[in-house]
Amino acid sequence: MPGGDPAMLGSPAVHAMELRKEYRRTVALAGLSMTVGRGEVFGFLGPNGAGKTTAVKLLLGLARPTGGTAMVLGAPAGDRAARRKIGYLPELFRYQSWLTAREVLVLHCRLLGLPRLSWEREAGAALETVGLTGRGQDKVGTFSKGMQQRLGLGVALLGEPDLVILDEPTSALDPVGRHQVRAIISGLRDRGTTVFLNTHLLEEAEHVCDRVTVISKGRALASGTLEQLRRRSAAVRLQVTGLPPGWWQALDGFGRWSAEGDWLRVRDLADGQVPDLVAAIVGRGGRVAAVVPEQQSLESAFLDLLGDH
Amino acid sequence: MSTAGAIWTIATLTMREALRRRLVAALAAISVALAGISAWGFYRLSHSTQVTTGESNAALPLAFILFMFMFSFIVALSASAIASPAVSSEVDSGVLASVVTRPLRRSDVLLGKWLGLAVILAGYTAFVCGLQVAVVAIVSGYVPPDPVAAGAFLFAEGAVLLTLVLLLSTRLSALAAGVIGVALFGMAWLAGVVGSLGDSLHIPVMRTASDISQFVLPTDGLWHGAIYYLEPSAYLMTQLSQDGGQNPFFAAAAPAWSYLAWAGIWLVLILALGVLSFQRREL
User: Fold this and answer.
1) Does A108 contact B102 at a Cβ distance shorter than 8 Å?
2) pTM of the entire structure?
């Protein structure tokens, strides 16, 4: 586990309570509450314009909330000392184009206050981690977008941060680069570093995240492990015949349902409720010809969540 | 990282950028070209058989002041050009987001940028003043009485504009900040001309407007400080006896200490406003 103030180590990596951000008439965040535990790889999922980047900016102190509070590494969001232990890859990753990649990394070592003797070692290790070893002496201005994003990731990893905030970290990367980023995130998890992964790419979250929060229109819709998220919107399809008038009363207390011909689709069933549902239908005189559990992908769970709100 | 360390880190980064982007080289090249042209002019003026030695002695200081006016304009334009993108362009491009999320204060970032830009401006002003003095001394033998003090005033004039444009850059686009800065500089100079005209035409309100302008934006007041230290005493006496020195390229006296103190306070206030504005800016 990376070092840090012992008093702060017990606190969550991120804790937001009713965080709000309004830009004149636009509500970017409408009371976001969430907690990210230490050492987690946390996925912050949402469609474009959901408020993900706004939330990240508030957590880093780049913008001020209009309501609510946020604590990062046990300190108020934007706290200068806490920023020493945070690595950040912005969504809009741009670095001094007139510096070489190695110079950018050394600059950030200086800004972090790392010992001078460690600068070259840190820069070299970061270049190697992100696959830019041979390009350290090249000007950033000559880099492709993908290479600049790799460099940004290297910058975020300097100084063994306790929390790494990655805002859409693979947006400019090819499949090989994406795979490498996943490996880097796994490495961070193994080291005990908290990773806050801001993404709209569900596949990315599916590969690396321990837990996710889904956000839409500036509000958290659901939080949990990916399995919990899938199960939350899991559905069962039943082929039912012979139900008398008023049959739907048999479904009271069994989640939300919709009917199409002989087929019923029931969502939000609690664990182990399927036998009870079948018994209730049979008890009302219905005949259940088939029970088909629907396999929910993260994508359909995500779309269901967004559709419900 | 200590505050001084953070300011110095940003200042050296700013200076390196100016050198790497060849901004300093471009300014130096154009200054050398202009000084070369002035060499020809000063040589002709000092070696002409059509003018008497007395006429030549009267013309050389004025010609030198006019050339320095041109360089003061270049210094002011350069100050505006280097300060206008310093914050706004880096905010727009996203470069600053990765810097200000490091454990340093926003005030350190802005003060570091100001320091770096001010050092560049000081270096350029020293170079251009030294070059012009050397070129004129070589071709004509004329040396103004106190070129170091004049250069210091020229730098102060540029630093005032640099500070104002840096403040504007914390809120406006680079283009808007630069254009507004140059326009205000031009208006302040024009207000100085209006004051001279008011003296000639005996219209006190024009002098009052000019004086107020010199307090609102002290660039022209400081430029007149530079003029004063470029005037030999014989030239000064002649000008005063001829027309009371009522022309925009003449200064009858050095700026008062109280005025210099105000210029210093003005600069600190505008810099503090810039820091406050940048601290409150959402990125």
Assistant:
1) yes
2) 0.86
